[in-house]
Amino acid sequence: MAVRPIVIYGDPVLREMGEPVEEINQEVKDLVSDMTDTLRKAKGLGLAASQVGSAKRLFIVDLSAIDIDASLLVFINPEIIETEGAVEMEEGCLSFPDMYFKITRPERVKVRAYDLDGNQFEMEADGMAARAILHEYDHTQGALFIDHLTPLARTLIKGRLKKLAIAS
Ligand code: ZN
């Protein structure tokens, strides 16, 4: 398939609420396949459809870089059912090159979604997997990791964000 360009902060598609996927047709399968190629090339842990310019409620997570037993996970029309705890971790985003921030998020998450075969599944995750799922889920809602920063922290990075938005 094909590597697609990753949308950078400043592009309005990143703020769009993802449209639910109505049918897992060839277009959706091609999108997931391209997203997989794009994520592997970028060496990221997760990628949402909006990050390749398609505001659909869909994301993928691939933790195989840090866990050899991990396989690629596809989440279509994901819902966060439960969260527990709170933990601060450094986080990056492929739409914000070279920017890393300490972000507090729930420690554990229970998510429900459909896979590429149209089967609904539920999954519980903690650690990096929970982090990646919550981060990518945000993208499907038009939310971004910088939204979790304190107002002060956001003020401090305003200039860097502006530069990124202008360059994109
Ligand atoms: Zn991201």
Query: With helices defined by DSSP (H or I, 4 residues minimum), what is the helix count?
Result: 4
The CATH first-level class comes to Alpha Beta
Using the CA coordinates, give the radius of gyration. 15 Å
Report, as a whole number of angstroms, the end-to-end distance. 25 Å
Shape: globular
Strand content: 25-35%
Mean pLDDT: 95
Number of strands: 7
- Major pleated sheet: 5 strands, antiparallel
* Sequence of strands across the biggest β-sheet: 1-2-3-6-7
Q: What oligomeric state best describes the polypeptide chains here?
A: single chain
Which ions, cofactors or small ligands are bound in this entry? zinc ion
Low-confidence stretches: none
Q: What would you give as the CATH superfamily?
A: Peptide deformylase
CATH architecture: Alpha-Beta Complex
What share of residues is helical?
25-40%
Which fold name is given in CATH as the topology?
A: Peptide Deformylase
Number of domains: 1
Structural class: alpha+beta
N-to-C SSE string, H for helix and E for strand: HEEEEEEEHHH
